[in-house]
Write a structure and sequence with these properties.
Helix content: 25-40%
Strand content: 15-25%
Structural class: alpha/beta
Number of domains: 2
CATH class of the largest domain: Alpha Beta
Radius of gyration: 23 Å
CATH topology of the largest domain: Rossmann fold
Bound molecules: 1,4-dihydronicotinamide adenine dinucleotide
Shape: globular
Number of strands: 19
CATH superfamily of the largest domain: NAD(P)-binding Rossmann-like Domain
Largest sheet: 8 strands, mixed
Oligomer: single chain
Distance between the termini: 35 Å
């Protein structure tokens, strides 16, 4: 069976779904690996490296493949090159990709979305949201340190003492914790806040101070945060204002799955920051945690430079691609039996990540959003399906098995 590594066509994308050093893992599973020309070029992986690793570089890779792996979902036009019954594995933001999902269904493509892989212990090694958030969190701290025209660490010198930078991190999920860890390693004094109760301990375990606003915590399902009411948001902003005014660098990473990013910091709050201070808003692309931040740009608000993140993992394409490729290898390993790509749709991870299969939309929230409520369906809707979908999990998948 053949796996094709797609060349990314999204503007600004530098990552690639497979790196040369992991090609051997796919051949060990029994696959022939085809790579579209220049697929890895922007991540510094030349075609020759893939050839040396045992892959074949081919302009017709998509048309020949049983499984296409990519970072971003193929466009409908590119997906048309696939043969019916082929599968794709990529990020696929289902909420904003309804036309594509319909096309994939109608083309009889089995599409797996990396962001839908259930975040349970067994699937941690396949969790591309986490691996890419790790890269983003690190990059945010490095960007903040780079933009700030002063030291992060304490320096005691013969010429006097240089005080360490004060860093505040808002949102302490995977990216936020990595931003904390990186800022600490660079020697900054770090304080952080998250609405989830469990985050306080995680913040402290990174060596930072957890900011306690004495507000109710906002635990949602599956270990994620819940959306704030406007009243709660206003109180949070008011109570965070003095911490932000005192920060040399503010890094925001807060998100609520399926929603626009919560607005945590108004431009008035940024205007209270000291001359030379910097703000790094990782959530700029999804609405922004900081009022006035612009994805992909540095803007000035008051005395502060405000950096808006845009496809941040792609700014470190080598390591981001390698981690992503390892996630893909692990997911493919789960779906491969005796050298054949044979996903078991009774497996929670497989069905959890599947969007379309056998001419149907099998991710239930997406199916309902596109095709309407299930009650309208005939009772024997799955009678002739080769692999009838089993019980589906909501997005994000709930599980008590989180760590
Ligand atoms: P995310 O990207 O959805 O959100 C980032 C952070 O923003 C979260 O910690 C959230 O609580 C915080 N946040 C939301 N609204 C906020 C607000 N108004 N103010 C301040 N902070 C706010 O989350 P991520 O990083 O994808 O994961 C979050 C949770 O999932 C964590 O508990 C993490 O430990 C857990 N997790 C579990 C995994 C597993 O078991 N396999 C894998 C990855 C994450």
């Amino acid at each position: 069976m053949k796996i094709a590594v797609a060349r990314e066509t999204r503007e600004g994308e530098s990552r690639v779904a497979m790196v040369p050093e992991l090609v051997g893992k796919l051949t060990d599973l029994g696959y022939d690996v085809l790579v579209e020309p220049d697929a890895g070029a922007r991540a510094e992986y030349d075609d020759q490296l893939y050839v040396d690793a045992g892959a074949v570089v081919s302009g017709s890779a998509l048309a020949e493949a049983d499984v296409v792996i990519a970072v971003n979902a193929l466009t409908s036009d590119r997906a048309r090159q696939l043969r019916a019954g082929a599968a794709t594995m990529s990020f696929l933001p289902v909420n904003s990709s309804h036309d594509l999902v319909v096309d994939l269904r109608d083309m009889d493509i089995t599409a797996f979305a990396m962001e839908l892989v259930p975040r349970i212990s067994r699937a941690q090694s396949m969790d591309a949201l986490s691996s890419q958030a790790l890269v983003s969190g690190y990059r945010c701290a490095i960007v903040a340190a780079g933009l700030l025209r002063r030291f992060f660490p304490l320096n005691m010198t013969a010429a006097g003492t240089v005080q360490p930078a004060q860093v505040v991190v808002l949102g302490a999920g995977v990216a936020g914790l990595q931003a904390i860890a990186t800022s600490k390693r660079l020697g900054a004094v770090v304080q952080a806040y998250d609405v989830r109760a469990a985050a306080a301990e995680e913040i402290r375990s990174m060596g930072a101070k957890s900011i306690d606003l004495e507000l109710e915590t906002l635990e949602g399902s599956g270990g994620y945060a819940r959306e704030m009411t406007e009243d709660r948001a206003a109180r949070q902003r008011e109570m965070l204002a003095p911490y932000i005014a005192n920060a040399d660098a503010l890094i925001t990473t807060a998100a609520v799955p399926g929603r626009t990013a919560p607005m945590l910091v108004t431009s008035e709050m940024v205007e209270q920051m000291k001359p030379g201070s910097v703000v790094v808003d990782l959530a700029a692309e999804s609405g922004g945690n900081v009022e006035g931040s612009v994805a992909g740009k540095v803007v000035r608000i008051g005395h502060a430079q405000v950096w808006g993140g845009e496809n941040v993992p792609s700014q470190m394409p080598g390591p981001a691609s390698k981690l992503y490729a390892q996630n893909i290898v692990n997911l493919l390993t789960l779906m491969t039996h005796e050298g054949e790509f044979a996903p078991d749709f009774d497996d929670e991870v497989v069905i959890g990540a599947a969007v379309t299969h056998a001419g149907r939309i099998v991710h239930e929230p997406t199916r309902e959003a596109i095709e309407g409520p299930a009650e309208d369906e005939p009772v024997d809707q799955y009678a002739e399906a080769a692999d009838p979908p089993t019980a589906r999990l909501d997005l994000p998948n709930d599980s008590e098995d989180r760590t």
